[in-house]
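Lab notebook page, bench 4
Experiment: in silico fold of construct C2
Operator: M.H.
Input chain length: 566 residues
Purpose: comparison with the prior construct
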Amino acid sequence: MGHGMLTVLFPSLLALISFLHYGRAQDAELTLIPNRSLYFVGENVILLCNMNESNGENWEYELIKDGSEHVAYSEDARFEISLTFPEAGSKYQCIGRHKTDSKTKMSKNCNVAVAAQPKAQLTSLISAGGGAKLNCSVSQSPPWEFFFYRGNISSEFVSIKNMYSSATYSVKGEGVYWCRGGRGDPLYFTEYSEPVTIENTVSIKAVATMEHEWRPIYIGEVVTLRCNVAGTEWDYEWISDYDKSRKGARELKIKTSFSDYYSKYKCRGIAKHSPLTVTQWSNSVLLPLTLNDPHPSVSLTVHPNRVQHFRIDPVSISCEGFSTQWRLMRCNVHTKVCRVVGNTMNSIFKLDENDLGIEGVYWCESDIAFSNAVNVTGRDDIILLSPAVPVLEGEKVILGCRTKLPIPRINFYKDHKVIFSVAVTKPREANMVISAISKSDKGFYKCGDAQTVSLQSWVSVTAASKQDHTFIVLLLVGLMLGVLLIIFLVLISRWRKKQGNGLRPRHDEGLYGNQSSAVAPSVNQTETQTYCSLLHAHESTYESIRGRGNTEEGNPDYEYDDIANP
């Protein structure tokens, strides 16, 4: 330990003795080549020690770093150091010792700061004429020389020298480009930039569609998106708010997760014969996911019923269902982080200012059920008054705008376009009425003026269920068939009764006592009298009566034959 301490203190002690003896202990000079305020890992720096004497051959030189010997005495006054790791700032000194009289000289401290190897930044710029430009920059320790590459990093495309911290190059064709900076002799290079692709964008615009967009989409379902581009010589690329680019087929099948909540997808075509020839990006397709298919006996309501609230307003959420223990859940729309906001034995949760300061999706859940989900957020200056739950197609919907700012006229926006403008009549509030909302009215709405606008909120429109329509139709058809059946049965009954009264024979007493006659009724009075007299004429006589149909008068005509015993 004593030897180590002596080694550390010896150079300083020697310099002090030299100063006391000669009075010129700091006449030596230490020069950095190149002299920079900041060096980088991988660079070399030369430290040159000068005794400021005409004859420097009689000196030996030592290099001190941060008070400790770094390079031992030698006749070489030139020290070349490779910088291998970052340092905030090391202090270097050199000491010269005369060979004959042991006279010494010490230089002042030179600070050497070392940073990690920098990386160039390459960005694409669009000029006023529509052409593309590339800008390469290195922000640390300029000046730099810049090198641009096209196609691959092994082929230099162009170099621009004597620039300070950035250089701009006008691109004349599509391709993949890189850049890097360099300085010194020999050249020290930065890391390569990330590649930038310059594409040839044609005038064709892709169109993105989604299957079954009329109905809600539940988390965990598979949704099919389709990209439509005129022609057949195209591959396709899809991007979304929270996902990397996906290249492949025309159809994109997504198994939805919470990260897709209100995510927007768009697509474009990529020419098969020229991968750098692309169409314009399509419209955005929104996935208005429902958290899950809620249990029919569980629901969540917001009081008051709207998405946006002033942070100081009293806002509560009610969980209604058969559970006695609820958890109120919230997922941050931007970070996708979900957590429990509160637990309660009753069904009402009150949100405070901190809760309303987060744009979140809320739902209620218990151990056996969960509710629908709604968006709730808060602002301090201006809010849009829109329904927190989907509205039924055909309903009257009133969108309001409420502000704490003195705005004389308020604009209502749908998908970032002004659709309605109205003067503020109520105290800092204005309304827009949709008399009969339709599916074409669904979208993102916001309100305000050119300086201040509210957050945007999604207005969802739900069509009437097809199952409900089918049930109603079947019910009406069943009722109609029942009525027709009853009418038919009544008519049949009346017809049969009428026919029965016209064909059934009449019972006449006096002929064979109580035996019924087989002859049809309606015999006139004269014929009846004759018929009776014949019966009483002779006991052994019997009568054969044969009907001959109807006469012209419409009455039945009968023929009587008397037969006597021999």
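Observations: Confidence is low (pLDDT under 50) at residues 1-11, 14-25, 506-566. Residues 121-198 form a domain with the Immunoglobulin-like fold (CATH 2.60.40.10).
Next step: discuss at group meeting.
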